[in-house]
């Protein structure tokens, strides 16, 4: 992303399609889970995220864990990561890897018919390498079999290979099906061969005897033996089912058909415990607990669950003073998480709704700062109802709003909502919640906006003037004074929130595609006809235009910067100067973006990804503007351009630091007279010092000379640029040193003319206002004593009034001027 973006982490991506590994560091079990191009480490007992690896260039295909390192493989690289030191080493691979094992001081992998061992602490050190003549489908290093590996070949042959003698010491023809996995049972010489046809074959390798087999209706992905007493084996299938077999009775004692919504990839009993961990490609890891008194009773103890489908909507909601990141996907999956502490993430319960009734995918969501009645509202594709959600209690709030002109349904059970409520004549196209959380608005396909009380779902009313096209956005300002709605035809209407009476309208080029508000101001960014316009809701004027066809966009938390995505391109704009700061191209297009309104986090959703990426926005890293393109003069007409000077400088101009010794430290003491000296050199040196001092305090400084010179032509551009580039203390000195020169020119009068020119030019506007304030404070009384100066200041006042009237329609003044001058950057 941008140079001023520091990647923080991915959240919401819990588990992918790669089978994860579990190992023990002493008595602490942990999971090493591959998530796209990085891996996470979770504590197995608490499912707490403890480590996030550095991302790799490609997707991880295999992962294996050892107490001291985690080994990962992509299509082209093998990487070994020391998670304690957060260091890694990697090498290139010449062929794809089909199997990967971490065996103490050796990493074992297979590539086609070759299997080899590599020193994990020196990846250039190949410990052994063997070609068995046929592709290897599965591999295992059995406990108690030093230096030996069981290999399953794609011709169904099974071999026991001694790596020290580099020879086969045992083999048999197999069971007419390719082996997917080999697992050692609790009896050291009995192994389970997981076959592609769904069978589990138990075979005694020591006596070369078939024991028995267990059939399954779907291919088996993983198995695990229980070690705390009962002779049981857990099996997870490609269809997401979890089977638990009693090995003594050879029968199923527990069958959970939907343990995961999609294929389950991993299953593992914790050593000596009645706890079982499963993972699946439905982006979930679950911990199951078996009843200690009834071994066939199992329940979910804890879980980490993410979106099964890529999220379609994102936003921030404040709950108990903490900002929660909210994402929504599918028809009813709403997940809220603290972006700083992912352990607090929760998927909101839809009870008492029936999931079968939720047939419309989430289109957008809106949030509020108050969790009293609800925290989030979701709008659904071609749906009539807008559902309210309670993050604090992690559930559906049992209330809805509707696009129909009637009260929203209060839902005590799923029978309360009729089919007609779900599928009304009007469709909800957008929604918003007020900052206080007491009210909500629904934009409809009929061009109306319905207003509701969120506590009860009661309809408050409808806006007085309806649009002629479906509503694209609806917004209520932070003080609940007006409702702003925009339709596809480009019409934007303003209504009084109290009585919903019509107060004004603005037309912008159609079609409207979307809107993003700045929550702490009156600014709305609206995508319109291939551009993005920034609307000031207070003055009903367009404040800024950006010539980019944005799909997803948002303001920074302070409103100073603006982020826009358009397919694979992302833009960063400076709102004050209307300057494009940076443009980057990314691999996965952004499908949603949101800024933390109280922090420096930026959250992004990406195409084909269930993860939410978090970034730290560091505006202090914006030192240069590469390939910048300023808004042209014609496009910028009617806007005020603010300075790019540091805002601390403006603050110091208005309020100089209180350091009375600052100038005393550098003060040159003028001697009352020059002492007689015995050498001519001393007199010359002192005379030179006196001349240098005279030049410093002389009225005609270089700045004054330039100002006087430019005054003859009536153009002060270079003078203004020189002045604003000075330090704040230099600016104060130049202003205080203004006087009538030897030719009778009043430098103060020329300075006022320069200020008038600068105000009329309306560039570097904020720093010019600060300089004007310093000048007027310095010469306030003297202005009244000088008729010429008084007349010039009156002209300056008229120019300032003209600029002020102009600025009343420019959001730059109302939104930024006071804020920037009083904020220390």
TrEMBL record:
Repeat positions for WD: 257-291
An example Gene Ontology CC term for this record: Pwp2p-containing subcomplex of 90S preribosome
Span of domain WDR36/Utp21 C-terminal: 670-821
Keywords: WD repeat
Coiled coil: none
InterPro entries recorded: WD40/YVTN_repeat-like_dom_sf, WD40_repeat_dom_sf, WD40_rpt, WDR36-Utp21_N, WDR36/Utp21_C
Domain WDR36/Utp21 N-terminal: 32-291
One BP term from GO: rRNA processing
Domain of life: Eukaryota
Protein name: Uncharacterized protein
Species classification: Eukaryota, Metamonada, Parabasalia, Tritrichomonadida, Tritrichomonadidae
């Amino acid at each position: 992303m941008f140079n001023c973006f520091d990647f923080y982490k991915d959240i919401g991506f819990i588990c992918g399609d790669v089978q994860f590994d579990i190992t023990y560091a002493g008595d602490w079990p942990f999971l090493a889970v591959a998530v796209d191009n990085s891996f996470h480490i979770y504590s197995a007992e608490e499912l707490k995220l403890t480590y996030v690896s550095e991302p790799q260039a490609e997707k991880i295909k295999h992962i294996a864990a050892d107490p001291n390192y985690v080994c990962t493989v992509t299509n082209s690289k093998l990487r070994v990561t020391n998670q304690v030191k957060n260091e890694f080493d990697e090498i290139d691979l010449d062929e794809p890897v089909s199997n990967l094992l971490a065996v103490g001081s050796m990493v074992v992998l297979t590539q086609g018919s070759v299997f080899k061992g590599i020193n994990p602490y020196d990846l250039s050190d190949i410990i052994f390498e063997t070609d068995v003549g046929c592709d290897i489908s599965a591999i295992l290093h059995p406990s108690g079999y030093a230096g030996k590996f069981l290999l399953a070949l794609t011709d169904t042959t099974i071999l026991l290979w001694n790596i020290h003698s580099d020879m086969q010491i045992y083999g048999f023809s197999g069971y007419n099906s390719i082996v997917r996995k080999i697992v050692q049972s609790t009896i050291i010489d009995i192994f389970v061969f997981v076959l592609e046809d769904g069978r589990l074959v138990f075979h005694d390798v020591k006596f070369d005897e078939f024991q028995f087999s267990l059939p399954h209706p779907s291919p088996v992905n993983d198995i695990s033996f229980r070690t705390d007493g009962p002779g049981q084996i857990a099996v997870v299938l490609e269809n997401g089912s979890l089977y638990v077999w009693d090995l003594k009775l050879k029968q199923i004692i527990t069958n959970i058909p939907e343990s995961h919504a999609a294929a389950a990839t991993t299953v593992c009993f914790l050593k000596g415990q009645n706890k079982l961990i499963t993972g699946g490609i439905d982006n979930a890891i679950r911990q199951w607990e078996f009843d200690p008194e009834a071994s066939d009773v199992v329940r979910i103890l804890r879980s980490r669950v993410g979106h099964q489908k890529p999220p379609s909507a994102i936003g921030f909601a404040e709950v108990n003073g903490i900002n929660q990141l909210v994402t929504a996907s599918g028809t009813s999956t709403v997940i809220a998480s603290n972006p700083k502490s992912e352990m607090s993430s929760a998927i909101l319960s839809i009870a008492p709704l029936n999931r079968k009734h939720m047939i419309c995918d989430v289109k957008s969501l809106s949030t509020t700062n108050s969790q009293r009645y609800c925290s989030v509202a979701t709008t659904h594709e071609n749906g009539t109802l807008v559902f309210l959600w309670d993050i604090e209690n992690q559930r559906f709030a049992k209330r809805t709003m509707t696009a129909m002109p009637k009260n929203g349904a209060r839902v005590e059970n799923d029978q309360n909502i009729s089919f007609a409520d779900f599928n009304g004549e009007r469709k909800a196209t957008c929604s918003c919640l007020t900052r206080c959380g007491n009210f909500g608005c629904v934009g409809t396909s009929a061009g109306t906006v319905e207003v509701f009380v969120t506590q009860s779902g009661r309809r408050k009313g409808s806006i007085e003037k309806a649009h002629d096209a479906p509503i694209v956005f609806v917004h209520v300002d932070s003080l609940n004074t007006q409702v702003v709605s925009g339709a596809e035809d480009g019409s934007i209407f303003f209504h009084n929130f109290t009585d919903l009476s019509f107060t004004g309208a603005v037309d912008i080029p159609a079609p409207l595609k979307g809107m993003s508000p700045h929550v702490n101001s009156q600014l709305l960014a609206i995508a319109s006809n291939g551009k993005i316009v920034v609307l000031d809701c207070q003055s009903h004027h367009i404040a800024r235009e950006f010539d980019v066809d944005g799909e997803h966009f948002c303001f920074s938390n302070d409103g100073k910067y603006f982020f826009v995505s358009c397919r694979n391109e992302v833009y960063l704009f400076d709102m004050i100067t209307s300057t494009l700061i940076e443009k980057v191209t990314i691999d996965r297009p952004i499908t949603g973006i949101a800024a933390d309104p109280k922090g420096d986090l930026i959250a992004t959703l990406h195409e084909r990804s269930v993860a939410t990426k978090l970034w730290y926005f560091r505006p202090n890293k914006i030192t240069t503007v590469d390939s910048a393109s300023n808004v042209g003069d014609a496009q910028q007409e009617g806007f005020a351009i603010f300075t790019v000077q540091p805002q601390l400088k403006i603050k110091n101009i208005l309020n100089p630091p209180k350091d009375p010794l600052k100038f005393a430290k550098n003060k040159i003491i003028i001697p009352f007279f020059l002492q007689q000296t015995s050498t001519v050199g001393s007199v010359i040196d002192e005379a030179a010092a006196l001349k240098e001092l005279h030049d410093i305090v002389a009225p005609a400084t270089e700045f004054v000379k330039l100002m006087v010179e430019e005054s003859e032509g009536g153009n002060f551009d270079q003078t203004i640029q020189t002045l604003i580039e000075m330090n704040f203390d230099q600016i104060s000195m130049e202003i205080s040193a203004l006087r009538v020169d030897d030719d009778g020119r009043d430098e103060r009068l020329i300075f006022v003319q320069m200020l008038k020119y600068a105000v009329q030019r309306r560039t570097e506007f904020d720093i010019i206002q600060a300089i004007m304030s310093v000048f007027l404070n310095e010469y306030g009384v003297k202005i009244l004593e000088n008729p010429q100066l008084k007349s010039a200041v009156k002209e300056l006042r008229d120019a300032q009034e003209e600029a002020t009237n102009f600025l009343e329609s420019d959001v730059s003044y109302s939104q930024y001027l006071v804020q920037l001058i009083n904020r220390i950057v």
